[in-house]
Amino acid sequence: MGRVRGSKLEEAEFTASDSGGRLDQRARWRHWSQLLLFASPVAILGFAAWRKRSVFEDAYIYLHVVQNLLAGNGPVFNAGHRVEVFTGPLWTFSLAAGGLLTPFSLEATSMALGIGMTLAGLSIAILGSARLIRQIDPSKLLLPIGALVFIAIYPVWLLASSGLETGITFLWLGGCLAILATWSSTIQLRLSWYGIVILGLGPLIRPELLLDSAIFVVVVLIVGWADRTWSGRLRIVLLAVSVPLAYQVFRMGYFGELVANTAFAKEGSRLNPHLGIEYLKNFVNSYWLFVPAALLLAGAYLPLGAALWRVRGNRALFWAFVALPIAGVSNAIYVTLIGGDYLHARLLVPAFFACCAPIAVVPAARRYAISFFVAPWILAAAISLRPLPSLYQLYQGTTSIAQGGWHEGSPLTDWYRGKGIYVDYGIFDATQIRRVRVEPGKDIGLPALV
After folding, report:
1. Residue 155 near residue 104 (C-beta atoms within 8 A)
2. Of 270, 247, 271, 272, residue with least CA distance to 84
3. Three-state SS annotation for the chain
4. I need a labelling partner for 247 at 20 to 30 A (CA). Which of 140, 224, 240, 373 fits?
5. C-alpha torsion sign, points 62, 68, 69, 74
6. What span, in angstroms and rounded, lies between the C-alpha atoms of 198 and 206?
7. pLDDT tens by residue, the chain, 450 residues
8. Cβ-based neighbour number of residue 226 at 10 Å
9. What number of CA atoms fall less than 13 Å from residue 197's CA on the CB side?
10. Do 133 and 304 form a contact (C-beta atoms < 8 A)?
11. Alpha-carbon distances of 213 from 78, 99, 153, rounded to whole Å
């Protein structure tokens, strides 16, 4: 009898141990599967961005400023001329740090930094999205639906390495989502001082990101309004504006201007909605963005937003979830009103990222099934959807590159006749452009431009 009871006991212990082993194995498999799903869009974007790496012409403005800065002439385009010709101070100083600390050329440094910051921004956004969604669905497998939508469009691949401030914009937006997600999931709704400072950095990345910073800070203030004193509210505002205000003092003292020279050159305060609408239509229609917008709104934003709103006693989760898309839409409206940009999608891609980031991952559950039908669009966008002709086709940009490129035999380069200096005499009238080749060393002899 004792031996029988012992045998049954041993069998029960073995069964329990075997069951526990299977559970551990299943947990490990689930853990690694989740990490693989999180890493996949980052790896795909890294491959695509590296394959399409290039430096856009406007990036050489940044690079020449950095050359002068490293040579001791200050952040200027021409030594001795105190003119702020760059748009993004943080990107300028990031390039300078890269040029100072690495042995590579500034062009290579700008591409590496841009791609690296883009991938870091996407990774942080995925983790921030997961942190929010785990508050309502802690056990489901998370699918990178929004992340795949973001990486599917062609301009994201090009702009990652463009030498422009796009990569640092993605990094900042992803960081803001992670900061808001962490803040909203704590019981006391406490935000670190450096988190507040980061939320306020928008205008130092691009001027229009002031809108995004303002929205993020307002969300933090309003949600915790009742639990803070006036001194606490003032502290948040002062921390948020501290770095931009310090740079503004430097700008006024060093350059003698209230805003960068690009604000005057590109008429940043002048409304050109007719051009902006064409710019927006070219971006939306090129990639059929109304398809993922409808599917993600119905299958991800509405059910997730409703679930976060119902979390008892913590409306902060909901506002952290919608802060980035509100900022993204506001940013897109501003860009449209001022007339857009001559580079296809450049000023709208940050808004696109902001709208995709909170739903970078979506639970693998039936209530979110509508969002899964975006998969065919993701494939179509990645494989075949490319920029349509636009008002900005005259100049080298992603539109021109996608339509044949600046290579021998392309209709875009039928004017090219070998090495030389090429002058657009009719540069102020697009219908009168005449390209004239001048032998190296010869007098260009520009006619008067009336």
Report:
1. no
2. 247
3. CHHHHHHHHHHHHHHHHHHHHHHHHHHHHHHHHHHHHHHHHHHHHHHHHHHCCCCCCCHHHHHHHHHHHHCCCCCCCCCCCCCCCCCCHHHHHHHHHHHHHCCCCHHHHHHHHHHHHHHHHHHHHHHHHHHHHCCCCCCCCEECHHHHHHHCCHHHHHHHCCCCCHHHHHHHHHHHHHHHHHHHCCCCCCCCHHHHHHHCCHHHHCHHHHHHHHHHHHHHHHHCHHHCCHHHHHHHHHHHHHHHHHHHHHHHHHCCCCCCHHHHHCCCCCCCHHHHHHHHHHHHHHCCCHHHHHHHHHHHHHHHHHHHHCCCCCCHHHHHHHHHHHHHHHHHHHHHHCCCCCCCCCCCHHHHHHHHHHHCCEECCHHHHHHHCCHHHHHHHHHCCCCCCCCCCCCCCHHHHHCCCCCCCCHHHCCCCCCCEEEECCCCCHHHCCEEEECCCCCCCCCCCC
4. 224
5. negative
6. 14
7. 444 445 555 555 445 555 556 667 887 888 889 999 999 999 999 999 999 888 888 898 999 999 999 999 999 998 888 999 999 999 999 999 999 999 999 999 999 999 999 999 999 999 999 999 999 988 889 999 999 999 999 999 999 999 999 999 999 999 999 999 999 988 777 889 999 999 999 999 999 999 999 999 999 999 988 778 889 899 999 999 999 999 999 999 999 988 888 887 766 667 888 889 989 999 999 999 999 999 999 999 999 999 999 887 778 999 999 999 999 999 999 999 998 888 889 999 999 999 999 999 999 999 999 999 999 999 999 999 888 765 444 333 333 333 444 455 555 555 555 555 444 433 333 333 344 444 444 443 433 322
8. 6
9. 7
10. yes
11. 32, 28, 26
How long, in residues, is the chain?
A: 450
Residue appearing with tokens 């050359």: 67
User: Whose structure tokens read 């296809």?
Assistant: 344
Amino acid at 195: G
